[in-house]
Amino acid sequence: MGRQPCCDKVGLKKGPWTAEEDKKLINFILTNGQCCWRAVPKLAGLLRCGKSCRLRWTNYLRPDLKRGLLSEHEEQMVIDLHAQLGNRWSKIASHLPGRTDNEIKNHWNTHIKKKLRKMGIDPLTHKPLSTTEQQQQQQQQEQKKQIPKPAVKSQVDKTKEPETSIQSTITEAKEEDKIMTSRLFDPMEMMNNIDGFCTDEVPLIEPHEILVPSAPSTTSSSSSSCDSSKFLEELQFPDFEWPSDYNTSSCNNSNNISNNLSFWDDYFGGWDLIINDDSDRNPALGSLPSPLIQCPRMGFDQGSWTYDLL
DNA sequence: AATTTACACAACCGCGGTCCA
DNA sequence: GTGGACCGCGGTTGTGTAAAT
Questions:
Q1: Of A54, A126, A163, A303, which has the fewest Cβ atoms less than 10 A away?
Q2: What are A205-259's pLDDT values in tens digits?
Q3: Strand B closer than 7 Å to the CB of A18?
Q4: Nearest nucleotide (C1') to the CA of residue A61?
Q5: Between the CA of A5 and the C1' of B21, what is the distance in angstroms?
Q6: What is its main location (predicted)?
Q7: CA/C1' separation A196–B20 (Å)
C-alpha cells in the first residue's frame, strides 16, 4: 500500500552542501532532468534525502536564478504582491522570474519588514501602524536608548529617519538598488541580449540528447557550503575570464551569489569546451552525433525544464 | 588581535494537499 | 475508498561573515 518512503533518514547527511555534492547534483539533473526527487540522491550518489536535493536545486543551483539583491522594481512588486497575497511566497515568487520563494521570504524578513516598519507601516497588514503599536515601538526605542549601545548598528539604523510616505522611501531605496544592481550580473538578461535570443523561438531537445560534462575531478576536501564557490572556481574554462570581483568575494555574501550566476552563464557558454573535454573522457559520447556540437550554447526552458539550444 | 554582536542567507522542519498502489 | 508516500510551501533555525569594541 502506498509508495516507498522517500528516505529512511538513517545515515543521511545534513547541513551545508559541499562542492562535491553540488557537482553530483548538477551533473545528475543536467543529465536526467528533474524527475522523481526521491530517486535523485541514490542515482546521483548523494547521501541526502530527495527533499534536500530539491531544495538545493531550486533555491541555489538552478541556472535561471537571478540572485543578488532585489531591484527596486522587484522589491516594490514584492510589497504589492504581499499586500494582495500575504505570506504566499511561492505565489509571489512566480511573479518574479529568477527569484525563489525562499529568497523573497528572506529578503522580506531581513529588509522589507524593517523598511516598512520604519515607514510606520505594519508589514502584516500593509496599513499604518496603530497609535498603540507606534507607542509600543517608541517605548522599545526608549528602552534601547537606556541599554548600552549595541556593538553593531544595522543597515537599517544607518538609514535616514523614517520617511512619511512610501514613495520617498522607495526613492531612497532606488538609489541603493541602482548601485547594487549595477554591479550584479543577470544571466537571463544576458542570455536574452544574445542576438535577441528568446527561449520561445528555439527548438527543445530531449534530456537524453544532452551531453553533460563530467565535473572536473577534484581532490578538495571541502566541508561546507562555502566551498561551493571553490567548486565554481574549479570549473573555470581556459578561455574564460571571471568577473573581477569573483575571487575577492566571500562565501556568503551577495557578490558570491551573483557569481554563481556568472558561473552558470559561463558553464553554458563553454559547452563546446565541455563537450570536447567530455568526449575525451568518455569515448562513447564522442562517437554520438551530439546536437551540442552543432549548437554549443544551451539554456533551460524555465517552465518545462527541458533544455533549449541557444 | 581577540572577542562580541548583528546581519544575511542557506538549509531544515513540519504541515497540508495531492497522488498512487 | 483508504493509507501512505511525495511534493510544495511557509516558518524557523543554524552558520558564516563583517563590523564594532
A1: A303
A2: 333 333 333 433 333 333 333 344 444 444 433 333 333 333 333 333 333 434 4
A3: no
A4: B10
A5: 13
A6: nucleus
A7: 44
